[in-house]
Write a structure and sequence with these properties.
Layout lengths: L14 E3 L2 E3 L6 E2 L23 E3 L16 E2 L3 E2 L7 E5 L3 E5 L4 E3 L1
Antiparallel strand pairs: 1-2, 2-3, 4-5, 4-9, 6-7, 7-8
This protein binds zinc ion (ZN).
């Protein structure tokens, strides 16, 4: 396992101390726990955010419910970037739905 160079001074003398990387040259300490931000994008590649409003781009069959019609407006979406159906939303008559962002467009 190779340790990363110090992001401050590029020293390669980095060592580990309690899950922190420490640079003995400039005494910089950092952790490699990166927050991987997975972006949720709509059909056009626009990045969606929690609370956005979107429209459904085509009729979507919903299990145990009527078809969610094209152009249905959905307000206040909640993103679930780690899930396949990465948008949670509430739609009148449907309750809580889990949709794929590729079937939505930002409005
Ligand atoms: Zn350094």
């Amino acid at each position: 396992m190779s340790l990363p160079n110090c992001p401050n001074c590029q020293s390669d003398l980095t060592y580990m101390d309690n899950n922190l990387y420490v640079c003995p040259m400039c005494f910089h300490e950092w952790s490699d726990v990166e927050e991987t931000v997975v972006e949720v994008k709509d059909v056009h590649g626009n990045v969606l955010n929690d609370g956005d409003s979107v429209a459904v781009i085509r009729d979507l069959k919903i299990k145990g419910a009527p078809t969610l019609k094209q152009n249905t407006t959905i307000k206040n979406i909640v993103l679930r970037p780690d899930e396949d159906e990465n948008v949670m939303c509430k739609v009148d008559g449907f309750g809580t739905l889990f949709l794929k962002s590729e079937f939505l467009k930002k409005i």
